[in-house]
Amino acid sequence: MLETSARLLRLLSLLQTPRDWTGADLAQRLAVDVRTVRRDIQKLRDLGYPVHATPGAAGYRLGAGTKLPPLLLDDEEAVAVAIGLRTAASGTVTGIEETSLRALAKLEQVLPSRVRHRVNLLHSVTVTVPAAGPTVDPDVLTVVAAVCREHERLRFDYRSHDGTDSVRDTEPHRLVHTGRRWYLVGWDTDRRDWRTYRVDRIRPRIPIGPRFTPRQAPDVDLAGYLAHGVSTAPYRYQARITLYVPAETAAERIPPTVGVIEAVDSHTCILHTGSNSLDEIAVYVALFGFRFRIHQPPELIAHIRDLTTRLTEAIETF
Does 91 have pLDDT greater than 90? Predict the structure, then answer.
């Protein structure tokens, strides 16, 4: 049998998993009887940890309290947290770099040597390129995440890509992170349709609106829905282009915020992309280095024919 202090830490670790534990389950895991479990639960409560009894079968769940309990991590979890903190130190959320480094320092101080070696090995051979472009205010991100979780309507000031300001009223659904930017997918109550918003352009209005009944998601694949929404739908020209390379090869060069890639077979794929500029699409696709064929829009086809003629004449002149 574990000593009392070690058993309490083990019990706290079990309660940190997102599930309800019956007294019998905990007793089996700790190799004690149910009466000892009840006494240990009370000791945790006396220390300030809110262990709630669940209705029905005698069960327990760790709730939110006034203090953070010690986190008991296995080796894989500790490596994942350390890598995540290093990434956050140069990520896309404003103002958490220093906080992430402080938390990482505390974690590394108590890591076993075997785990610290794995973390340091990865760090020694990794170069992080700082994120380019606007970053997200962590307070805004927290507000948006909370209303998504609690199903509360959100009114906010929003600046669109063309610089115009508007007030939006939404039923927030999910936050989506592309690695470079954060987006909110939500139901726009005024436009009565699903919309995608860049979180760095959102300024929430307080207080938060009333609760709502969640709607069915616009797509099971929210990542694909977002990619289509930010890379194609908002633009004047929407292009469909065959690339004569495997979809995996194209995906290495084309981020999901630029275009949606649809596999055709093992050697070709379709790129769906968009822009307000025909020149931008023409130059961007030409610089991939892939063989390609443009199917639409007809304006792009005509524009590239004209561009090809002018480029050919420029070469023949000299």
Answer: no
